[in-house]
Amino acid sequence: MARLAQRAENVWVGVNCGIMDQMISAAGRGGHALLIDCRTLDTRAVPMPDVAVVVLDTATRRGLVDSAYNERRAQCEAAARHCGVRALRDVDEATFAARAHELDETTRRRARHVVTENARTLAAADALARGDADEVGRLMDASHESLRHDFEVSRRELDAIVAIARAQPGCHGARMTGAGFGGCAVALVARAAAEAFAAEVASRYERVVGLTPAVYVCRPSEGATLEGVGDTLAR
Fold first, then answer.
1. Same fold, 49-63+155-224 and 68-152
2. What confidence tens digit (pLDDT) does each residue in 129-179 have?
3. Does 21 qualify as catalytic in the annotation?
4. Contact in structure between 31 and 47 (CB atoms under 8 Å)
5. How is the chain split into domains, by residue range?
6. For residue range 43-70, what is the model confidence (pLDDT) as tens digits?
7. Which of 43, 39, 12, 54 shows the shortest CA–CA distance to 223?
8. Does domain 68-152 correspond to CATH entry 3.30.70.890?
9. Which residue among 21, 90, 132, 159 is the active-site one?
10. At what angle do helices 133-149 and 105-130 cross, to 10 degrees?
């Protein structure tokens, strides 16, 4: 299912996207985050600590095909070819640091984001497994700064809602999510503080930015399933 959904986006919509969204929709587990190897499609379910995932919709919209998504991907593929590897996931941080000067400034920043983000993702899975929400939040904060400065896919409204979120009690960390240029951010929040957090972020964001956000307090759930199939077939 995930492969077919990705193919529809790549071939029909025209966005050269990966498979993360499709895989979590297909293979998610309740109460867990999902670490996905996008090359092999192996997955590792990681239990979530006592936190809420709060989605912060900035009330701004993006057009992925018209955005720089495909351009960013092409830049990263060029960096991988320069390093003689199939993909930037095959370049560790030490190797990249040693060879970064060989790339032009823009390609270097794009590749640096991917290399460091891969490392942050693995570190976040380990931190979640330990129940260390503070460390996961720190990694989320670092991710947003990298997306903002190196990958350059954030915008004023995303930066504003992330800053407001980080300033609230109970927030471990926050970052933009998705392809960028609008859309949503996501925050990791102590469960007991989540409702108050959501209300305060919405209020402050509207005052600062002048847009009304949608805020969703979420929990990890099962991926797509077929319910009642046996009953339907029996009828």
1. yes
2. 999 999 999 999 999 999 999 999 999 999 999 999 999 999 999 999 988
3. yes
4. yes
5. 1-47, 49-63+155-224, 68-152
6. 999 999 999 999 999 999 876 545 677 8
7. 43
8. yes
9. 21
10. 170
- Residue 85, token pair as written in the block: 């590897």
Say how far apart CA 126 and CA 156 lie, in whole Å.
Answer: 31
How far apart, in Å, are the Cα atoms of 191 and each of 39, 64, 204? 33, 32, 20
